[in-house]
Amino acid sequence: MGNIYAVGVCACEVKGLCSVTREEIKELLNEAEKRFAAETNLIQLESGRVIFVGDTHGDFEATEKIIHKHLKPGNKLVFLGDYVDRGSASLENINFLLQQKVEHPDSLFLLM
């Protein structure tokens, strides 16, 4: 895997202080697609703490805070959708979520 981590790092610098190449985005999308294809349409979670996250609407800062606070061993995060629109950082938000999905496929779930 190339530099998918760079996409997440750049998402953390929303004010345009870094750049992500088209190839890095393509690589992220390809890896995320593989993760989604490996999942069934019905998510069955084992016992443990499950945290459901409502619409983030492009609010990257809120998404980042939720992930850093709650994505811990034993926790499962289920994002319910509406990841983009309204907010000023929709692209950063979805890229960050996809990057986190690639890194934590068994702990983070994105409903589409």
From TrEMBL:
Annotated ranges, domain Calcineurin-like phosphoesterase: 49-110
Single GO term (MF): protein serine/threonine phosphatase activity
GO cellular component: cytoplasm
Cross-referenced InterPro entries: Calcineurin-like_PHP (IPR004843), Metallo-depent_PP-like (IPR029052), PP1_catalytic_subunit (IPR050341), Ser/Thr-sp_prot-phosphatase (IPR006186)
Pfam families: Metallophos
Name by which UniProt lists this protein: Calcineurin-like phosphoesterase domain-containing protein
